[in-house]
Amino acid sequence: MSCSEWFPGITVSKETFCRKYDLFWSVVDLKRLKESTAVRWIVFVGGTGTGKSTLFNFLCKSNVSSTGVERPKTGGCIVALPERAAVDDSFYHLAKWGQSYPADGTPEYFTLAHHTNEKFENWALVDTPDLDSLIESHHRLAEKMGYLADVVIFVLSEEKYADEKLVSVLIQQFSWHPCIVITVNKVTDSKIIAADVEEILRGHGFPDFRTKVITVPFFSIVPDNWCEFEDAILKRLPFCLQNEARLTARFKGLCSELLTILAKEREVLASLEVAITEAMKKSFSAFVEKHTKDISESARSLLREEIQRLYSRYDIFSGPRRFLKDLFFAPFRWIKKSNAKSKEAALVSDAKYLQHQLIMSAVMGSINQYIVDVYRIMEPYDSSSLCKRMKDEKLILSESEVEEKIRNLTERLMDWLRGEFEKLSKGIPKLKEWGIYSSMLLWAVFLLAIESALGGGISVFDALLDSVLAPVVSKYTVEWFAKRDIHRIGQEFIDRYKQGILEIMESQRMKFVELLKVEDLVKMEMKRISSVCEET
Amino acid sequence: MTLEELQTLSARIDELEDRLRQLPKWAFEEKEADKCFLTIAQVREKLDKVKDQVITVGLLGGTGVGKSTIINALAGEEISTASHRRPHTEKILMYHHETIRIRDFMMPNEAPVVCLSHNADRARSLILCDLPDFDSVRKEHRQRVLNFLDNLDMIVWVVSPEKYADQVFYDFLKAALEKKSPGNFYFLLNKADLICDSEENRTLLWRVVENFRGYLRDSGIDAPIVYAVSALEVFNADSISSWNQWELFEREIFREREIKEVEAIKEANLKQMLDNLSLVVTNCEERMLPVRRLISQLPEALKEHKQRMDYQVKMIVNAWADSFLKNADQEILDFGTLLVGPSRLIFSLVEIFSKRRQFCDAARGTLDSPPDISQVLKQLSNRLTSFVMSKNLPAPVSEELIRIWSFSELSSKWVAGVNTYLETIKTMGLSGLVGWKAFIFRLKQYLSFWIIALVFVASMGRIWELKEPFSWNSMLWAMLKCCERMFSLDGFGALLSFVMIEILVGCYFVSRYRKFLREVAQKFIETIEQEIFQLWDDFVSELCEDIRREGEILLAGSENSVGEQ
Ligand SMILES: Nc1nc2c(ncn2[C@@H]2O[C@H](COP(=O)(O)OP(=O)(O)OP(=O)(O)O)[C@@H](O)[C@H]2O)c(=O)[nH]1
Ligand SMILES: Nc1nc2c(ncn2[C@@H]2O[C@H](COP(=O)(O)OP(=O)(O)OP(=O)(O)O)[C@@H](O)[C@H]2O)c(=O)[nH]1
Ligand SMILES: [Mg+2]
Ligand SMILES: [Mg+2]
User: Fold this and answer.
1) Quick check: A78 and A65 in contact, CB under 8 A?
2) Distance from CA of A383 to the nearest CA of B (A)
3) Each residue of B322-381: pLDDT tens digit?
4) If residue B150 lies in a helix (H) or strand (E), which one and from where to where?
5) Which chain A residues are within 8 Å of B207, Cβ to Cβ?
6) Closest CA of chain B from A153, distance in Å
7) If residue A467 lies in a helix (H) or strand (E), which one and from where to where?
8) Of A319, A331, A305, which Cα lies nearest the Cα of A417?
9) Closest ligand 1 atom, CA of B195?
10) What letter would DSSP give residue B54?
11) Cβ–Cβ gap A354/B315 under 8 Å
12) How many Å is the maximal CA-CA distance in chain B?
């Protein structure tokens, strides 16, 4: 998977990291390549047209790399191995013999060649593309060679030695190198130019001017064989054998740079996940706090209705009571609010709809609150691509989705309720049943007593008393017995309701957290990198 | 340039300036606005000078490509020092005919300038400029060159075989294209002698030139004019080699130009500047598109949610009204003074049972606190906020938009609106039965009670049994009989039923009266409910209006903040 696919890019931009990351892996490849041969590397780097290839060819004693007037000329790394160098098979994964020489090189692989210079029999010579032409991939190709070169020959020319680009690359990418040889080519006045170069470098903080600049004179015709340069390089080589540690340190530096970025990234991802989860909990508890009363009220009234229906089977007076009530109230209709009942009935369906709307908008409200909270959490990382993906509208649960979920939830709850009632109706304990019966019996006895005391049939007042009190007493007896069940089922019902709502919000949270799941990839990648780093 | 052309150009400037002014500040990138207005000012200034017959030619290139050598070769004497040390030239050299007063042709800038006059007539209307490099470690040189660009009409770009592929060159070329027309560019490949060290290498030179042309084309210069020259060869006054295109170049530079041509050169540069400016402006305008779209979408989004919010508000207002009604019912019963006799008695009993007093204050309290729809408002605020935040708008825009419907803003607006309404309601109060209606109501009560009482007395006294004509004697007799009956078991039953009937009738009146009062209260509260609904509707449409207005402000140009430079 390519770097830009998995790298979240929260703390550093994707480009910066991926550049480093690609560099790392190609350096790792290169290291393997280098380790498969038992030679040290001398690498030529510098601006286009400064004469890298020309100097390289000098040392090779043959035209291995092409030189010419087209700029830029060399397009890939060219490795000239000493003729007797032992090479592992793995070498050939990354390097191929050139088709013909002099070769231009290609960015895809290392072009292999032999050099015939006996004086460099333990050294591989490497020509690289330029550092300053308009083909930017060349720069990267050349820069990474710094991680492996035992000797860097940085080639400048009289025309280019003050170029800002070259000097800054030299300072930033190569000045750390323990064995860098700065060479100025095509020089007409070697003393003055060498002094100028040294001054410029010193002015840019080139660390302790270890080495003197080597100058190469301008030849009107480039000679086939020219020894001074070779000798100057040879003189430096003995000092360049012991820098393995510095190279490894540099590589380790790259490792730790990558690892710290990834660790930071992981840390932020983890903290984001925590924050996002916290935010959900917060809006859920706000929801519970605000709407539990609504929910429990509506739930309880619903339950009461259902349970009473169930228990009314045991209410022996319900029949006569209704009859009496109707009988008694017929002439008194005008006292009561006549149209109140029908109005109420019309309101019931309306109220149910409203109830649904209320829950719906309450849920929608807290989801929106949650989303705003998440966006605010993401605010510091606004420019990252992760943030853009987080803010995708498709990630937000739409109203219809929420409505669907709530409908599902209510259906599920209703099913559960029905089951619960079934259980109830089957298993009303005998004792309870008798309790209900006996309290009603008491009431019946009480009524009879009054009747017999007054004598002569049930008076108007009795009827009034009965119709007003009997339903209440009988109702409350039933209710008193049902109360515990109402309480239990109601509590559970509400808990289930809350759980359902929590699930809806949880599904929104999951959508966000899913995006943070790259964390695993980051972790894997960290492991991969650190295992490679520990190897060296 | 004809007058017409001038007019179209200045019309274009005006149009661009207009468009610039209509852009809000946030549509620009950092410092972009200032730059744009500066460009406008510059173009205006240059347009005034377009009639000047003098052309300024500048030599631009990296260090060491031979700019100074070239100007020396053009001048035919060493007016600028060349060196093999890098970078060399630091100041700008302006080489002009003695009849030209340089100050007239220079935009003010800080670059150090050296002026040198000559009396060569072939360059009468040219100012030749040698400039510092733009690619060396001396970064101030680059800045000087950039600043000086404004003074140049024509640019001779100089490269060498070593530097013609340098990235810096093409970067700088791109920067220059913002201000100069590519039609006014010449390209010199200097030091061609390094490639053509012998005559047979000529094809090599053409390869390089072709290569260079290719790069130039890739950087957006369609038909680059490239000369391969060797200035050193010319300056040293050796015989000029056949591949050296110096003469061609020199002839082109010193060519006698017609007035029209000179104007065309300047006009082309101005047009290039304006083209680039209009690109920038279009870019900025495009940045406004999503904002505009969003602002037009917002009222729609709001309406979409309104339906659901309406239900919620309805529920809340209903609940609020109910609590009011419950309390108001008690309060209204103060009008009980209209009741008389037994109905008054029943009323008092009801009053005692319902502990009316406790509720009175609560009823007043209801009107003091408006229905609490903060939950709805919070949802609305969150909904719109997340909607806007997900759009990734420029920070100042989304901040501003979010501010309009921040919860505190919404709720304070709503509460203020409802409270003022409720204030007016409170002063209105409720009215019971008044005038002749009250009188009739009372009359009805008196009549019914007295008639029942009379019937009772009459039936007790058995009036129909008084057969003999009216006399005090018989009257007394009837009274006594009445008393006698009263104290019998029979009479007691009658008295009981008399009281019963009176109570029932009293109940009837109380209930009638209560019903009436309830209706009054109901009507009252219904109008309040409706009014509050109306307020809610108004509130939402006002919010829409606010969004529209705020959108207008956001999209409007910020003329006062970016003044003319
Ligand atoms: N006359 C002369 N030409 C030289 C000298 N050194 C290099 N050159 C020329 O400079 C040009 C560029 O040389 P190259 O070696 O191809 O330069 P390079 O650094 O490899 O350039 P790229 O491959 O583009 O990065 C060639 O035409 C060489 O002939 C010199 O000392 N004298
Ligand atoms: N071979 C050759 N050398 C040249 C030619 N033109 C200039 N030079 C040499 O190039 C070097 C630099 O020339 P300058 O004219 O100083 O270059 P410049 O562009 O003015 O450089 P800065 O002032 O630093 O920007 C000098 O040593 C010149 O002799 C040429 O046509 N052929
Ligand atoms: Mg090369
Ligand atoms: Mg110069």
Assistant:
1) yes
2) 10
3) 776 666 555 555 555 677 888 888 777 776 765 544 444 444 555 667 788 887 888 888
4) none
5) 69-70
6) 19
7) helix A460-515
8) A305
9) 27
10) -
11) yes
12) 173
pLDDT tens figures, B293-330: 888 888 888 887 788 788 878 878 887 777 766 665 55
User: Which residue does chain A place closest to B390, by CA atoms?
Assistant: A391
Q: What's residue B360's pLDDT?
A: 44
Partner B, chain A 436-475, Cβ-Cβ below 8 Å:
none
Assess whether the C-beta atom of B370 lies below 6 angstroms from ligand 2: no
What residues does B126 pair with on adjacent strands? B55
User: Which 6-65 residues of chain A touch chain B by CB within 8 A?
Assistant: 47-50
Give the pLDDT confidence of B90-137 residue by residue, as tens digits: 999 999 998 888 777 676 667 788 899 998 888 888 999 999 999 999
Q: Is the CB of B69 under 6 A from ligand 2?
A: yes
Is the CB of A365 less than 8 angstroms away from the CB of B379?
A: yes
Query: Is B64 within 8 Å of A365 when comparing Cβ atoms?
Result: no
B79 DSSP assignment: -
Q: Which comes out higher in pLDDT, residue A442 or A20?
A: A20
Ligand 1: atom nearest CA of A217 is: 31
CA gap A48, A166 in Å, rounded: 10
A214 membership: H or E segment, kind and range: strand A214-217
Q: How confident is the model at residue A457 (pLDDT cuts 50, 70, 90)?
A: very low
Chain B residues lying within 8 Å of A335, measured CB to CB: 507-508, 511
User: A450 — phi, psi (to 5°)?
Assistant: -60, -45
Per-residue pLDDT band at A453 (split at 50, 70, 90): very low
Predicted model pTM: 0.80
Q: Which positions in chain A touch B314 (Cβ < 8 Å)?
A: 354
Number of Cβ within a 10 Å radius of residue B340: 18
Give the Cα separation of B270 and B504 in Å (integer).
103
Q: List the beta bridge partners of residue B228.
A: B189
Nearest to A49 by CA among A78, A76, A73: A73
Q: Is the dihedral of CA A128, A131, A135, A141 positive or negative?
A: positive
Separation between Cα atoms, residue A293 and residue A448, nearest integer Å: 43
Give the sign of the dihedral formed by CA B66, CA B67, CA B72, CA B78: negative
3-state secondary structure of B1: coil
